[in-house]
Design goal:
Length: 337
């Protein structure tokens, strides 16, 4: 593969990952401690940025409070959803602000700031889950709020369940798709935590990756496709982690589609699957085909594919780090080449 082709592949994959991030790219937040009162309300940082919180209500009278400070001209954007509709679990919203007229809709146990009005927003229970291609997952979307803000100030959002039922809910806040570098790179680990919130076990979530790594290394060594040199093992591990992470996404896509109607958004998930699997395939193929010394050209390929892996969420960060290290591999350890 020429240097020009390597660069073209990198730029193409980077552009795909940027496009895909615009689909449903909320950044997860995890409040520390309880947020069950006005005094402990979780203040959402930069509430116009897209955030998601994955939470759980446990008993009667329990409510969770969020505080948002918005400026005039911004929008109040909130979505409430749940993975499963079990029993009578039906999370509601109470929205409180100074410019709202007081109402008696909210339960008496919902705390209200002095001088604030409140409105109750009841959920609309859909018949089917909606497929979400980024995670991937499928959810029942219950409430959607999108209101322009005419006056700056504090707004409180309260989530509660009036039917004395326990259950899990997700809340998405904001509308601007923005990421820091660390948020972008850690997205694969955020997705694992989301699937754990859904009720999946950690070992079940990462099983496709582990099986790909173990079976791939065993077959390649057993069939004598490669020799047990340190460089071979490290570089192949990187490529197999890429492929394994794509199979993790594939498994989650199948799980999500088992509970939601098929729609065109699946194509976007297929892009997420294709990016790491393509990179992994080229990495494994390159390792197998290498003869003699590791040239500067080959080193560049490993480094570029490692960087591309970081920005396409391939190999749970570990794979890209190993790929980059392979390109910088010390010459004195290249035994047998």
């Amino acid at each position: 593969m020429s240097r020009l082709n390597v660069l073209a592949v990198f730029l193409f994959l980077l552009s795909l990952s940027h496009l895909a991030s615009q689909v449903w790219a909320h950044t997860p937040l995890s409040p520390n401690g309880e947020i069950h009162s006005l005094d402990t309300a979780y203040e959402v940082p930069n509430p116009t940025k897209s955030w998601t919180l994955y939470r759980e209500l446990h008993h009667e009278g329990e409510a969770e409070y969020y505080k948002l400070h918005l400026e005039a001209g911004e929008r109040l954007r909130i979505s409430l959803y749940t993975k499963d509709i079990q029993g009578n679990f039906s999370p509601h919203l109470v929205l409180m602000a100074e410019d709202l007229a007081p109402t008696d809709d909210a339960p008496s146990y919902i705390e209200k700031p002095e001088g604030f009005g409140a409105i109750l927003i009841e959920p609309s229970i859909p018949q089917n889950r909606e497929y979400e291609p980024f995670t991937p997952a499928s959810y029942y979307y219950l409430i959607d709020v999108d209101e322009p803000i005419s006056e700056h100030g504090d707004y409180y959002v309260v989530v509660f369940e009036p039917n004395m039922e326990e259950g899990k809910y997700g809340i998405a806040i904001g509308y601007k798709e923005e990421f820091t570098i660390s948020e972008w790179l850690l997205i694969p680990f955020d997705l694992i935590r989301i699937h754990e919130w859904e009720g999946q076990s950690l070992i079940g979530i990462i099983a496709p990756l582990l099986l790909t790594l173990v079976v791939g290394l065993f077959i390649l060594v057993w069939k004598a496709v490669i020799k047990l040199y340190l460089f071979n093992i490290i570089a192949l591990t990187a490529g197999l982690l890429y492929v394994g992470s794509s199979l993790m996404i594939f498994m989650q896509m199948i799980i999500a589609l088992s509970g939601a109607p098929f729609n065109f958004a699946v194509v976007l998930t297929v892009i997420f699957i294709a990016m790491p699997s393509s990179l992994g395939y080229f990495l494994v193929r390159k390792v197998i085909s290498l003869k003699g010394e590791l040239s500067t050209k080959h080193r560049m390929i490993f480094v570029v594919f490692g960087i591309a892996g970081l920005f396409t969420w391939s190999g749970l960060v570990i794979g890209p780090v190993l790929a980059i290290f392979s390109g910088l591999f010390p010459k004195k350890y290249l035994s047998g080449r």
